[in-house]
Amino acid sequence: MTVTLVVFFIATRFSSDYAFPKMIYRETFNGLSARKKRSFVNHHVLITAKILMIALALYPYMRIILGLADFSTSIVAGSELTIGDITMIATSIFVAVYLHELLFLSSDVQWVSVVHHLGAIIVACVMITLNVRWEHEPNTTAYTVLIMTYGFFDVLAGLWPRPVMVIRTVWPKKHHMNMWFCYAALALTVLGTIGETIVAMYLYGINFSAWPLSIQIVTPICHVLFAVAQGFSSKIMWDLGRKHQGQLDQLGQCVRDTELGNSSTQSQNITKECV
């Protein structure tokens, strides 16, 4: 975990101090406020981390959920690296993603996101604790599959809006493109929430009698927290999509007024806003 957070720090510092202002985004990045710079860097770091996390965890997750392996199985034949090791690495990235956002953005993080992030961190840490003794703890594999399912859908739900925010920052006046990206992220997030509910609740239900009371109680609470956070993200995408749609309508009105030669005060004011 310590190593992962150090990597996050180096990536963040390199991006904000050198890569973005001097190499990649120059004019765009240097024109942002300090708050927006932090958010912009955070989006890039977390996009990269989440893609890496999915790439690492997908194979072990599928092997375990299909009953083809356990945590002591080698990731490839003859290797000392096990599926359990890869799972732990992916989980450490998962925890670091949320810790990094809480610490790096601090007061800029909404309270809904704070509660979600803390809940995700606690659940992931419990999973790590159980996995250390997976051969001795009952139902550890089933619990890990359940948490990895939540983690997979949660990572995807949090991934879609981030490229949209980057694109909006780089091309703020491309309203048509931004509008459809916002709506696409909204649709993917909603579909992900529905998929998460179906799959996770199925896994929760088929093992319900085997779960200890703590998991029986905490799992639905965490599910509600994750769903609310994803709903909050969906609402942001909806509002931004509507905002760009409104700006497109305004631009269309400008064009129509110009074509009709309308010189009214209201038309002139709209035209100024369009320009």
From TrEMBL:
<keyword id="KW-1133">Transmembrane helix</keyword>
<feature type="transmembrane region" description="Helical">
    <location>
        <begin position="111"/>
        <end position="130"/>
    </location>
</feature>
<keyword id="KW-0812">Transmembrane</keyword>
<protein>
    <recommendedName>
        <fullName>TLC domain-containing protein</fullName>
    </recommendedName>
</protein>
<feature type="transmembrane region" description="Helical">
    <location>
        <begin position="210"/>
        <end position="232"/>
    </location>
</feature>
<feature type="transmembrane region" description="Helical">
    <location>
        <begin position="81"/>
        <end position="99"/>
    </location>
</feature>
<feature type="transmembrane region" description="Helical">
    <location>
        <begin position="180"/>
        <end position="204"/>
    </location>
</feature>
<feature type="transmembrane region" description="Helical">
    <location>
        <begin position="40"/>
        <end position="61"/>
    </location>
</feature>
<feature type="transmembrane region" description="Helical">
    <location>
        <begin position="142"/>
        <end position="160"/>
    </location>
</feature>
<keyword id="KW-0472">Membrane</keyword>
